[in-house]
C-alpha cells in the first residue's frame, strides 16, 4: 500500500493490516456476519464469518500532531472475498453522527486501493430517500460522500477482496438505527453472475437509482494524487472534511 502514501500491508488470515515502521494505527476491528445481519436484505444468509476489518486513525507518526489539530482522521478498510447470500460483501448502511465541533454530519472522501467498489449514497434516510447514486470506482479513484447522506460501500467484484482508505472527521460516529428501521438503504445490491443488479427496498417510496462513474472534485482542490499524499503535501487541503460548514455553498445541489 506504499503507493497510496502509507507503508502498510493487508493480511487475510486474520483479516487486517500490518503497519510499517513510520506508520501507527489501532488493532483492526473485525465486523462479523452476525453483527451486520440487521442491514442485509436477507438477514439469515450465509457468507464469510469475518466480513471486513476496519482501522480508524491510521497515520504516519510525523503527521499525528497536524491531524489532531485539524480534527482529521484517516481510516482503512479491507473486505473479504465472497458474497453474503445473494448480496455482495458490503458495509452496513449508516449516516455520520453530527460532530460537536462543527455542528455538521461530516462528509467522507474514499479512495479505492484494491478491487472494485460501489459507493452507494442517498440524500435522506426517510420515506423519500431523495437522489440515489451508485458510483463504481476502481484503484486510485476517489468518491466524495456529502454531509448527512446515508451510504454504504459495496464490493463490485465478489471474487476478489476490496480495500480502500477514507478521510473522515476525527469525531466520527456511525448511526445505524434509521437504516436498520427500514431494513437497509433504499436499494439492495444483488449478485447476478458477474454483475451487480439492484432491487428497490419497499420500505422507501419508489424512486430512481443513478449509476455513475467517479468524477474529479476540482472545486474542493482534490487532485489525482493519492489522498494521503495530498495531505502530506498540503495539510490544509482536506479541512472541508472536518469543517464542511466552511464550504457550505459547495454542498448545495452537490453531485457525486
UniProtKB/TrEMBL annotation:
It catalyses: alpha-D-glucose 6-phosphate = beta-D-fructose 6-phosphate. The keyword Isomerase applies. The keyword Glycoprotein does not apply. GO terms for molecular function: isomerase activity. Pathway: Carbohydrate degradation; glycolysis; D-glyceraldehyde 3-phosphate and glycerone phosphate from D-glucose: step 2/4. It holds the Pfam family GPI. SUPFAM superfamilies: RmlC-like cupins. Keywords: Gluconeogenesis, Glycolysis, Isomerase. Residues 57-204 form the Glucose-6-phosphate isomerase prokaryote domain. Its EC number is 5.3.1.9. Belongs to the archaeal-type GPI family. This is glucose-6-phosphate isomerase.
